[in-house]
Amino acid sequence: MLRLKAGIAALAVAATMASAAWAQGTLRIGMTAADIPLTTGQTDQGGEGMRFMGYTVYDSLIEWDLTSADKPSVLIPGLATEWSVDAEDKTKWIFKLREGVTFHDGAPFTAADVVWNLDKILVESSEQYDPRQAAQGKSRIPAVASYKAIDDYTLEIVTKEPDATLPYQMTWILMSSKANWEAMDKDWEKVAGSPSGTGPWKLETFVPRERAEMVPFADYWDETRIPKLDKMVLIPLPEPNARSAALLSGQVDWIEAPAPDTIPAMEGNGFVISSNAYPHNWTWHLSRLEGSPWNDIRVRKAANLAIDREGMMPLLGGLMVPAKGFLPPSSQWFGNPTFEVKYDLDAAKALMEEAGFGPDNHLKVKALISPSGSGQMLPLPMNEYVQQSLAEIWIDVEFMVVEWNQMINLWRAGAADPSVDGAMSINFTYFIQDPFTGLIRHLDENLIAPNGTNWGHYSDPEMQELFKQIKTTFDPEAQDEVLRKTHEKYVDDALFLMVTHDVAPRAMAPKVKGFVQAQNWYQNFSSITIEE
Amino acid sequence: MLSYFFRRLLLVLPVAFGVSVICFMLVQIAPGDPLTAIMPVDATAEEQAAMRAAYGLDKPLPVQYAIWIGNLAQGDMGKSIATGRPVAQEVFGAVQNSLLLAVSAAVIAFPIGIFLGFLAGYFRDTLLDRAVTALSITGVSVPNYWLGIVLVIIFSVNLGWLPSMGAGPGGSQSWEWDWLHMRHLILPAVTLAVVPIGIVARTVRALAGDILTMDFVQALYAKGMSRGDVLRHVARNAASTALSVMGLQLGYLLGGSILIETVFNWPGSGFLLSNAIFQRDLPLLQGTILILALFFVAMNLIVDVAQAAIDPRIKRS
């Protein structure tokens, strides 16, 4: 009996030690990704990869302002302190680089490092060329034609044609250390286990598919972004229930994207749900091929007016921003569209009748949807909601349900491809943070699928002219104005079925303090503290 | 005995070849594209084509198979498209973790299943038999991922006794046989054990029940043998079939724990397989399926040989 008691006491002590093993100041995050994002520089795993392994361990020349929850993020100086286009030659850009920046391995950061990093993803013949990083980074900087270091802290980039979106493109390119790569026998596999960037966090340990541990970089160049935590641990937890259980049982302090139905239980147990508008879109792209019913603006407007977006909110536990346009209403590029995206069933029916449809003449359309996927929120019930809403105005939607990986292929293939089997719309979700991802890529006639992601084969000279202006307007304020005009046309022409925007919900233990959720896909973890 | 073993070993070769063809073809049939995992959706058609060529995915399927099997023969399972890491490193690390879980579940399930089965078989058609049968049917019928979620809610979320996920502090690479790590094993192992408990119990019950009615058992009693000695004979007669069922169950435990490993975020082969499926990571998918299938083949071989060792009638046949 005594032995049994001693055994139980030992187990109790061990259990106590298990929870005490995490010192104060350690933040453990359950990610939705199934693996630790690529650690060598250019990350994989989409926006989550950049959020947790990109802007933590690395910096780019130009970054996003992540300090405010109240206004949309704008570009700010990162490793470049200033940048400008040549007054005479609009393809030539000069970047002034920040002095006194060092990599985690102690090597200084110079313009030669930028050239080396660009070669890493663009020049296949270069010694440091890394196909995995190239796969992630090359398509992000389509404008770049050439580049060279003028001196240690001045860099010149020449674009293929005048392109005022270059600063946005450069936010994607992260700087890894050449010295560290050399120290790791010029082997990116070895670098993956011990990477070196200039970012505020240093990767300390890394177990593929299981965990990555980061510690603050005390010599980080921006004192306001030196992390206050002792450590940040990233744990891939792709299954939503496992993520929720891990948080509720105290194994992690923070989870990304809690399942909406678990949120009341979490809030009831004192957990904090953080969310904010950010540039995410949940929409239906419409086929504009000859014969598509979506070519009729009356049908497009009617469909947009038939959806009670506020009514959809309970499905998602209130965690959505009802669409007022293609971009979120808080976007700096929203503008003042004249077509109001709202629920008005009578107006929708009137438009449908005007277009020749009615109770005895239903419009039949086929829509591509996926049962799950990146940023898809709750695609099945949400799409069924849309289907029921459209049925109210005599649009009968037949779903073609495909798995997410295949959905991406059909998205790339475009509306004219036989693989979409005559589908006239596709429900897709994505990042709309910059002019290219937010607007240009969806409707540029040069990017008609399969050349790009203009899925519906849309082509309009007026829109094309606006895209040209975006690329040739180098004054940021004037460029914002063009972007607003472009978005106004998106909405006024009802070019998409605009439904909702995600709000990036994340649940965290009450001891997690100091987090400011920026209106951005990326976040700043440096301000966070743990209060026991 | 040795010639029997080598004959069985020779038969494994065509089976392994068949397995390699089937698992290569299976992963090709599924729609989807492995490049989706490694390229942004905006990658141009040329960039995609270049990447497809770099990974050899533009070659005809027979050529891709020949390259894969050729490399495999030299011990090279290729690299994961999604992670760039060697497939062998990924698969063997995960299989090791799954083996840990599967063996733990087997250690729980087999003794309990055998004990309950014997009990039910010996006391056939009694209340005890019916109770064990009901328990076995429940074990086999309850979806184990659901049971896993329920156990997590009870023991992790509500009681806070056991962790709900992972392979311990520091991850599976720093696994040690101490309480800090073993506590991570308890819930998934118990959940995984429920189905084999039911199957083994039902198998042993049927075997024990049948053998107990055989003439030789009456003869043994008639010779004045004690109940314990008779049961030993019964157990030996039942062992061969029970062993074969348990061997197959161990194979299922290793390869069939995708849902359990997902629910408990256990870094095993099931978890690896499910991620590889979603990412269409063909080399990883092929490698994992192949290794698991070969494990199954190896288990069958071991069981066959063990059966022959236990029961000379099998060897003679």
Automatic annotation (TrEMBL), chain A:
Intracellular or extracellular location(s): Periplasm
Q: Pfam families of this UniProt entry?
A: SBP_bac_5 (PF00496)
TM spans (from-to): none
Q: Taking every annotated instance into account, which residue ranges of this chain make up the domain Solute-binding protein family? A: 75-424
The stretch of residues making up the signal peptide is 1-23
- Which InterPro entries does this entry report, sorted A to Z? Peptide/Ni-bd, SBP_5, SBP_5_dom
UniProt cross-references to Gene3D superfamilies, sorted A to Z: Dipeptide-binding Protein, Domain 1, Dipeptide-binding Protein, Domain 3, Periplasmic binding protein-like II
**Highest rank taxon of the organism:** Bacteria
Q: Which UniProt keywords apply?
A: Signal
| Similarity comment | Belongs to the bacterial solute-binding protein 5 family.
Q: Read off the PANTHER family from this record.
A: ABC TRANSPORTER SUBSTRATE-BINDING PROTEIN, PERIPLASMIC BINDING COMPONENT OF ABC TRANSPORTER
Name the UniProt record assigns to this protein: ABC transporter substrate-binding protein
From TrEMBL, chain B:
Ranges annotated as spanning the membrane: 9-30, 99-123, 144-162, 182-204, 242-264, 284-306
Read off the SUPFAM superfamilies from this record. Answer: MetI-like
Q: Which residues form the ABC transmembrane type-1 domain?
A: 95-303
Where is it localised?
Cell membrane
Q: What main location does UniProt list?
A: membrane
Kindly indicate whether the keyword Metal-binding belongs to this entry.
no
Domain of life of the organism encoding this protein: Bacteria
Q: Name one Pfam family in it.
A: BPD_transp_1
Alphabetized, the UniProt keywords read: Cell membrane, Membrane, Transmembrane, Transmembrane helix, Transport
Q: Which InterPro entries match?
A: BPD_transp_1_N (IPR045621), MetI-like (IPR000515), MetI-like_sf (IPR035906)
Q: How does it sit in the membrane?
A: Multi-pass membrane protein
Q: Which family does it belong to?
A: Belongs to the binding-protein-dependent transport system permease family.
Protein's name in the database: ABC transporter permease
The organism of origin for this protein:
Salipiger mangrovisoli
